[in-house]
Known about the structure:
Elements: H1 13-20, H2 31-50, H3 55-71, H4 80-112, H5 120-135, H6 138-149, H7 153-177, H8 181-189, H9 194-228, H10 236-245, H11 249-281
Amino acid sequence: xxxxxxxxxxxxxxxxxxxxxxxxxxxxxxxxxxxxxxxxxxxxxxxxxxxxxxxxxxxxxxxxxxxxxxxxxxxxxxxxxxxxxxxxxxxxxxxxxxxxxxxxxxxxxxxxxxxxxxxxxxxxxxxxxxxxxxxxxxxxxxxxxxxxxxxxxxxxxxxxxxxxxxxxxxxxxxxxxxxxxxxxxxxxxxxxxxxxxxxxxxxxxxxxxxxxxxxxxxxxxxxxxxxxxxxxxxxxxxxxxxxxxxxxxxxxxxxxxxxxxxxxxxxxxxxxxxxxxxxxxx
Length: 282
């Protein structure tokens, strides 16, 4: 028998320790990383002090929490129908605002997407506007529209429209950018116009993501519309604010229960729809 060569079987000491010994789990962080972590910890401790966290105040507040919770049971049923009507208005605000916002988000997303925008300047301006819509909080938009058009659900609907555009337009644009460019380039090579490529390739390719994003937007709008009523933008939030101000915690408990049922129903519908779409796509 010939002598077996150990060529190809030799390993360095580092490789031997890595493959047969204890694995190297972490690398030593750089000096810059250590400084950044230390600065973050210092800032976090400073933020904790300014956040007003107090264990003594929390313990002192437990009796008040128990008193309020006791007054919430059982929930009051003397104003069920006005509350149910307010819940219906809340859902209608969310639904109408979401649908209109989604419809407006599609052309805005076309202008904001890298592969569909007519010019880089247009894309940057559009993305900046969408980012501004998304940055301003819902309550700030609600206060703006309440001051502009008055109290009521119209101000809340306008707020949800703007909020939906800020949410959907960005993710619609990113969904179209992630579509496989091959079919679009093939259509362009045979003389198809940009609008033809958008309608035939990009929109159908991004449609599953569009639907998923739209369902998340509806869930978000339902939760947001509850809070908008606190500043006079219509819906169940106004009823909740009045109940809390009048110390009718039993009525507030019924409102919270109705809000939970509404949000739970919308989330179940959204989840079942997404699961159905996933099964169809397989």
